[in-house]
Structure formats: structure tokens, C-alpha cells
Amino acid sequence: MEALSEHSVACPYCGEAFAALIDASEGDACYIEDCPICCRPIRFDLHLDGAGETTVSIAREDDC
Prior knowledge:
Helices cover 0% and strands 55% of the residues. It is mostly beta strands. The chain has one domain (4-63). A three-stranded antiparallel beta sheet has the order 3-4-5, with no helix packed on it. Strands 1-2 form a two-stranded antiparallel ribbon. Strand 4 (41-48) and strand 5 (54-60) form a beta hairpin. The chain is globular and about 35 Å long. It starts with a strand and ends with a strand. The model has no long low-confidence stretch (mean pLDDT 89).
């Protein structure tokens, strides 16, 4: 399994799509990263399942 993977996501604020580099080397994680287009904070929730697949969910920081 590669630690870094690229996921296409759409900003929950401006709606623009961008490629986010996801580091799943430590399993499940939650962190904040700014949108590269509008600079607003996006909450990334990562979940690593038993098969080694990473699920990425995003939300507005103020929705959490």
C-alpha cells in the first residue's frame, strides 16, 4: 500500500475540484486543510478499511 495517494475532491465552500494528496500511513485520521482555490478550511476525515482502501470524506470546518 502506498502511503500517499491523490484524491479528487470538490471544495464544500466554492465547489471547485482539486487534487488532494492523502497520507493514509497512520490509518484513520481527521485534519484541516485549506482549499487551494478559496483558502477556506476543509475538514478531511480518512478511514482505512480492512482491505487497505482509503475512504475520504470532506466537510466545511463549521459543519463539524
